[in-house]
Amino acid sequence: QVQLVESGGGLVQPGGSLRLSCAASDRTFSSSAWGWFRQAPGKEREFVTAISWSGVSTYYADSVKGRFTLSRDNAKNTVYLQLSSLKPEDTAVYYCAIRPGGTVYTRHRYYTAEGDYPYWGQGTQVTVSS
Question: What DSSP designation does 128 have?
């Protein structure tokens, strides 16, 4: 059974930075697209960012564009989400997910729906507060 394990969450002050990691137990997912979602208290889970299997293509939600950076290391079967210039509204549980298709978009849309990603991690808490 595939396991995704997130790490790196914690408490940070506004304007600060964190780096989240997500490692997969199965090396076959080096050919998959990876995504990150987040869920704030009382809100629905929302898309944050995604990266293609090669790492060439990335896509970001407008709310994090320019502040978050997603990268991957296929040799380690791990993706990294660098969170910078954090704001209190970034407080949420962050989830990584895998999409075996490998791409982050089709001709019609980007893959930003929860249903596009069949495999999920357990989540890691990020709290931005002074």
Answer: E
Please tell me whether residue 16 adopts helix, strand or coil conformation. coil
User: Distance (Å, rounded) from C-alpha 32 to C-alpha 52?
Assistant: 7
Q: How many CB atoms lie within 10 A of CB 115?
A: 6
- Count of beta carbons in the 10 Å neighbourhood of residue 69: 16
CA distance 87 to 17: 10
pLDDT digits (tens, 9 = 90+) for 28-86: 788 899 999 999 999 999 999 999 999 999 999 999 999 999 999 988 999 999 999 99
Burial readout 31-53 (b: 16 or more C-beta within 10 A, e: otherwise): ebbbbbbbeeeeeebebbbbbbb
Instruction: List, as one string, the DSSP characters of 54-119.
Output: TSS-EEE-TTTTTTEEEEEETTTTEEEEEE-S--GGG-EEEEEEEETT--SB-SS-B--SGGG--E
Tokens for 125, please give them.
Answer: 């808490």
